[in-house]
């Protein structure tokens, strides 16, 4: 999955896609990320315990200027919090949208967004588990080891409602799974053992986030 790989690209909707129909999200990352966040407004981050994080978000049905503004605001918020991925409910919005700006294990940067994402079921031979450290802006200052498949495919739509597909390996595959989980009301700590979950919450209680969070009251 090297970025230098030559593929026949064609443009459908707002994204270029490769010859297997997956979004090319490795080009002009810096310019695209900057354009989104300069149009957007940064918002504080919701944290574990806030109800919006613990329920499935609503499907997006209106593809209007408000949706484009949400994506811009999410890029701005992700940048402020120094995240590599952000789901809409992490800024308190009950809609199935996530953005990302995330390197894979080859150091290749992936930048983009997806609306109404659905994670593809992988055939058993493609489910190779990778155990790495994971953290979440909504569980500030905590990290835990979590095993996840090292490859992921997600399908959804773009800002115009056109079908799109994303895929990733390594750390970026982890990001795609983590962000899709968010939109179905699941945090990574919900996938930990009872003991590791408790430890993550203790780390959070003892730490101080480096960005503004929404108080739970
Ligand atoms: Zn998260």
UniProtKB/TrEMBL annotation:
Enzyme nomenclature, EC number: 3.5.1.88
Cofactor(s) required, per the database record: Fe(2+)
Signal peptide as annotated in the record: none
Gene3D superfamilies: Peptide deformylase
Pfam family, any one: Pep_deformylase
Cofactor notes: Binds 1 Fe(2+) ion.
Active site: 179
Catalytic activity: N-terminal N-formyl-L-methionyl-[peptide] + H2O = N-terminal L-methionyl-[peptide] + formate
Residues annotated as binding Fe cation: 136, 178, 182
Purpose of the protein: Removes the formyl group from the N-terminal Met of newly synthesized proteins. Requires at least a dipeptide for an efficient rate of reaction. N-terminal L-methionine is a prerequisite for activity but the enzyme has broad specificity at other positions.
Official protein name in the record: Peptide deformylase
Native source organism of the sequence: Streptomyces yaizuensis
Organism phylogeny: Bacteria, Bacillati, Actinomycetota, Actinomycetes, Kitasatosporales
